[in-house]
Design a protein that fits this description.
This protein has one domain: Lipid/polyisoprenoid-binding, YceI-like (Lipocalin, Beta Barrel). It contains one helix and eleven strands. The chain is globular, with a radius of gyration of 16 Å.
Length: 167
């Protein structure tokens, strides 16, 4: 059975497809999976996106603590909106994507339910790894019937201070 997950990290979206009863492996819907982020420019809130390059998702909808997620974000393809903001973000003084094109996350502990879970694990940016906690909610995708777990979306949100990673 093809399972797809739509992942959303820190504004990240994952689209997945599950199984029933136990933990099931889901396939990432790469076309619809992104990390959205906000930042300030001249005091104004701005938004940007980074594509999710890959994800390994084992999801137990009935017992989320039995789940696991690992994801790689393609920082080299980040879009911060204005061209100059994107270039500044990718520069050596911030993400340094020429040397570190990927950002990775791996869950180590998951608590809660599908209606509100906390995911803890290491995030690696610029080859610096720091622990983070993300909040997560699992949704049925639009157009699916109740109980259909073949196509799900996971919204993960959190706050990350880039200075912790030397950026």
């Amino acid at each position: 059975m093809d399972r797809r997950l739509f992942l959303a990290l820190a504004g990240t979206s994952l689209a997945v497809r599950p199984a029933h009863a136990a933990a099931s492996r889901y396939n990432l819907d790469r076309a619809n999976s992104t990390v959205a982020f906000t930042y300030r420019m001249n005091g104004q809130p701005m938004t940007g996106r980074m594509p999710v390059a890959s994800a390994d998702i084992l999801l137990d909808v009935d017992q989320p603590p039995n789940s696991r997620v690992a994801a790689e974000i393609d920082a080299g393809r980040a879009d911060a909106g204005p061209f100059y903001a994107t270039e500044a973000m990718k520069s050596q003084s911030v993400l340094y994507t020429a040397r570190y094109p990927r950002i990775s996350f791996r869950s180590e502990a998951i608590s809660g339910s599908i209606h509100g879970a906390r995911i803890q694990g290491p995030l690696t940016v610029r080859n610096v790894t720091e622990p983070i906690t993300l909040d997560a909610v699992i949704y049925r995708q639009r157009g699916t019937v109740e109980g259909d777990r073949r196509n799900l979306s996971i919204l993960m949100t959190g706050t990350i201070d880039r200075r912790r990673f030397g950026a």
